[in-house]
Amino acid sequence: MRVLIMGCGRVGSRLAVQMDAEGHDVTVVDIDPKAFGRLPPSYKGFTVTGDATDAAVLTSAGIESANVFVAVTQGDNRNIMAAQVAKRIYSVPKVVCRIYDPLRQEIFKELGLQTFSPTTVLTSMIHDVIEQ
Amino acid sequence: MYIIIVGGGRVGRTVAEALLGGGHEVLVIERSAQKCEALREDLGSMVIRGDGCEASLLADAGAERADLFIAVTEGDEDNLVACQVAQHRFKVPKVIARVNTPRNAEVFRKLGISATVNAAETLAHGILRETRGVGLARLAPFPQAGMYLISVRVPRGGTAVGKAVTGITMPKGAAVTLVVRAKGTPVAPGPDVLLDAEDEVVVLAPTDQEAAVAAALASRPE
């Protein structure tokens, strides 16, 4: 699979390394080249520096042939915009998007995006531990 | 009308003032406390501090009864999301987004936000409109049709001087809509309208034919 990951933070870099180790064709995009320092020397995938809401950056990162697009930058709105561009303009088959704000997550889930809210997930996990 | 504006910078403030002057009910949502304070002093109490993409804040702001929603922050992704939230969650009938990166206008359109205003293009348009009389000026864009209403001044000693405006061959798809005489009198184009130096000819032209229109009207003999 060709996997395009936007945001090389803790989640993005970790996912990139995992998918790369599993033999997938991985490209990570980040606006800050220093972020790629999170990738170990064993990482064999690609890195692209640039703003992933910019169509030119997405094209050079190979979005046209991507099977999977993951938006995990620090900005909810940035993730939402990039995920919609990937899904609706480039028709990437699988698009996943992180949205911290649960209310915003709900709205964009209704609009057809596959979304994760770490806030909701973590809250319910902690709640489950307390209730055990 | 009840109008919500997200972003209280220079653009948001100017729009708010104009709409308030037009008798509308206006609310500005601004993230920075400092800007909010300054806005409150000038606009009164219709300013709230916060994130204009947040559904709970928009609910408090009465977004469900808004007639118009305008997002003019400096972040394109923020403007897009705010407008989408307003459109889908609060069913605001009309939303307008500012785009800071010109390319994004097309992206916004594809994502359901059809009314966008691009600062760079608007500024360039304003400047080009002021070039009236110097040469070719763009008066109004028709982006959906790929056309521009342009104005070309007939130069002194130009090949078009003395010819009937209808006798000048226009490039394909271009049409003369008006002739403005040097004194400022507008006349409808017709076979009896002979062009004179300094006349301004207003033409509706496909964007890729602007140079050809200028060549037809503003050429000088070799």
Provide an overview of this structure.
The complex is a heterodimer of chains A (132) and B (222). Chain A is an alpha/beta fold and 132 residues long. Helices cover 42% and strands 20% of the residues of chain A. Chain A has a single domain, classed as NAD(P)-binding Rossmann-like Domain (Rossmann fold, 3-Layer(aba) Sandwich). The mean pLDDT of chain A is 94. Chain B is an alpha/beta fold. Chain B has two domains: 2-118, 3-Layer(aba) Sandwich (Rossmann fold); 128-218, Regulator of K+ conductance, C-terminal domain (Alpha-Beta Plaits), CATH 3.30.70.1450. Chain B contains seven helices and eleven strands. In chain B, strands 3-2-1-4-5-6 form a six-stranded parallel sheet, sandwiched between helices. In chain B, strands 7-8-11-9-10 form a five-stranded antiparallel sheet. Chain B is elongated and about 65 Å long. The N and C termini of chain B lie far apart (59 Å). The model of chain B has no long low-confidence stretch (mean pLDDT 90). The A-B interface holds A 53-56, 75-78, 80-81, 84-85, 88-89, 101, 103-104, 106-108, 110-111 and B 53-56, 75-78, 80-81, 84-85, 88-89, 101, 103-104, 107, 110-111.
